[in-house]
TrEMBL record:
This is Phosphoserine aminotransferase. It is an enzyme of class 2 (transferase). GO terms for biological process: L-serine biosynthetic process. Pathway: Amino-acid biosynthesis; L-serine biosynthesis; L-serine from 3-phospho-D-glycerate: step 2/3. The lineage of its organism: Eukaryota, Metazoa, Ecdysozoa, Arthropoda, Hexapoda. It comes from Diploptera punctata.
Amino acid sequence: CLESAINFGAGPAKLPEEVLVEVQKEVVHYGTTKISVMEMSHRSADYAKINDTAQQTVRELLNIPDNYKILFMQGGGTGMFAAVPLNLMSETGVADYIVTGSWSAKAAKEAAKYGKVNMVLPKTDKYVDIPDPSTWNLSPNASYIYYCANETVHGIEFPYIPDTQGIPLVTDMSSNILSRSFDVSKFGVIFAGAQKNIGPAGVTLVIIREDLLGKAAIACPTVLDFTIMAKDNSLHNTPPTFAIYVMGLVFQWIKKEGGVKEMERRAIEKSNLIYEIINSSNNFYYCPVKNDVRSRMNVPFRIGDSNGDEELEKKFLVGAQKLGMLQLKGHRLVGGIRASLYNAVTLDNARVLAKYMKEFYENNK
Ligand code: PMP
């Protein structure tokens, strides 16, 4: 048994150890096939089973209604920033973007290549809150309304699903999917890059309501076309087969552990541990995000004061690494520290970090 480091990376991120061990067992010979999944035709019966089982398991985990298609695509979250307008904007040529952090800002910028983007919120570069919906500037003719459910860099997570009065709602759930239960039927499109809560980088999960298919712009690249991918069961071209296989194992792991509700319970417990230390540190640890929109997945904070004392932050990271805690450095846009607490990060892992933070505070305040 290997002693793994404690991985708080924002993505690619920690995978459940059990899944990695399973992959290790099967990597050379998958089942009775005597070949690896990596060497297997995507047109084979064995691969069809991997593809279909992964779909069925995630349908079950998220309670996805029958009128939604599940797609396994490529291009990552960034690919989806283009795919969404290319597939959905042609209705009116306008889309509303609720920008609450750097990832939704990037999505809005990409969408503006393909049509008119209406910014729902006033422009800011300090993302610390989600303005009240009564202040939102929604357009009367948007083809869809877009938001990022969890901003991985700024640590802002929507605690509710926006009410769009019937306009299709599109969300980027790359960094919080499968960590809280929610009503899929409130959405037109949900997408998530795999490399946080789902599996290895390379596959992007897309969940789309069927009536939104068939609207792609003529110039939409085939690999980004939701309608073609849905028609061909995500097998139009060669999919990232190995990533999809590992993703299927992660779905099964979540099911075995108690499903999304249990992941949600753990996410609350883990993040509360860290936020409690921050809140009781007299601003020695400083998280700029307003309490009710703080992410349960990504906890960004500065050390020393609100601007961060870089020497102290360096010392914190070196000390953490000595104790086996890795990838705690904040995103370069905001600096400081970021603890990502995805599904595969255990409660014990979070406890080790909380204990270290407490001791570091006592020794350096
Ligand atoms: N959306 C969110 C919320 C993300 O966190 C990221 C990546 N960290 C992306 C989109 C971009 O994903 P990718 O790197 O797979 O293009």
